[in-house]
Structures are given as C-alpha cells and as structure tokens.
Amino acid sequence: LIQMLRSAKKRDVLQLLRRAPEEMLPFIVEAAVAAQSVASLAALSDFLDFSKEPKSLLEKFLYAAAFSPRPSGELLHLVLDKLDGKQLAPEVQETGIVAMGSLVSKLCQQKLCGLQQEVRRGVETILRGLRSAKEESEAVIYLLALGNAALPETIPTLLDHAEEGPTTITTAAISALQRFPAWHISDKVKRAMRRVFHEKRKSYEKTCRLAAAEILLDNEPSSMDVINILLATNEMEAEIATFLLLKVQNILH
C-alpha cells in the first residue's frame, strides 16, 4: 500500500481516504504518512480537518508522524500547519507538541537543521509555547518536546526550568536533559546538576535529585562527584541510596 501511495496522484490518495471504511481509515492515514510523497502529504493536508475529525484519528496521524524513521521537512510543515493557531482538544494539542519535538530531532539527525526552515519554526513554536504556558501541565508538555528535540541551543532554557521551577517543571526539565548525548553535558550543566542534587538553592523532590545524580554519573563523572554522591547517600532513603550505590558499582566495573 505504501509503495502504491508513493506513486499515486494527490486526487487518487484523497479519493482513497474519503472512500475508505471507517475502521480502515487509521491504517490508510498511517500508510500515507509513511509514504511521505508530495501527493500523499498534500492529500492528508486536504483530508484532515483538525476541527472536525475524531480525536483518535488525529492522534493516529500525529503518532505516525512522530515515529516516522526518516521524516521529511514537508511532514513537519504539515504538522505545524495543522496545529498552528487552532483551538484543539487538549490530548491532540499535547500529542502534536511532543510529535513536533520528535520530528525536529530526526530532521537534525539527518543534517537538515540548517537547511529546513520548518525546523527553526518548530523550535520557535515549542519555545514560544513554553514561555506562554499558564499551567504547569502545559509547560511540562513543551519541556517533553524540547527533550525529544534534544537541540543544544535549548539547554540554557532547560537549565533555568530545572533549577527554578516547581517540582513537576524541574522533573520534566531534568528528564529532558537526560535525553542529550554526553558531549552536550557541559561543565555548566554539571554545575547545575550538582546544585540540584546537593540542594544548594532550594529543597528539591527526591526524584529530581536522583535524576540530577544520574546525569552526573552517566557523563564522565569526576572523582569528587562520585565521592560526594556516595557521602550524600548516608542521608537518603534506603531505596535511592541502594540505586546510586549500584550505579557507582556499575561504573567501576
């Protein structure tokens, strides 16, 4: 079906979408996303009405986009256009934001960051949404998207939220930092994680401290970091202390 859709004209793909039995429609939408031809994406653009379609079908489309192994700039453009400035069901909006981060990351892995205007638009959309988020739950979704995107220029934003935000925000920001490869975990990131783990600025929830310790231990830890984390386990709950001790033992092995 995907091979057929890649060679089909827009009107044929659109006709297939419009005539498909309801139970087959999600499958055909997934196939059209996988095909990623200009015609199949144009047909999806015409067919999918985010103000009318059932949430399940829209989420199916967004998940298919997010999990596409080699997405195109046109696919990200389609997702951006469908989400831009529209009043959507919260579930669809959240899935779309997280999918956007995943698409940005995969396009950058294909060395298309600087070549695709849509990538910059996607990042700006996520950052703008994070700045304007009024609810913690909303901000968390944008932080998850930044974690999916894993772009080094967003690390300062993640660090600000990791140290200064309430618990849910701090947890999401540190989780996002854990998605970055080791070469992006700079001394600045490590200094911030030490402040979180050792609670230098404020009291942090235990899951935040544990995540901060993991970042320190997983990214070329210094001997002082290992020593200080081991010393701190004396004052921590038994389960967390045991987890950190096992992590240090694994590093030694």
TrEMBL record:
Residues 1-235 form the Vitellogenin domain. One of its GO terms (biological process) is lipoprotein metabolic process. One of its GO terms (molecular function) is phospholipid transporter activity. GO terms for cellular component: basolateral plasma membrane; endoplasmic reticulum; Golgi apparatus. It holds the Pfam family Vitellogenin_N. It comes from the Eukaryota. Signal peptide: none annotated. InterPro entries: Lipovitellin_superhlx_dom (IPR011030), MTTP (IPR039988), Vitellogenin_N (IPR001747). This is MTP protein.
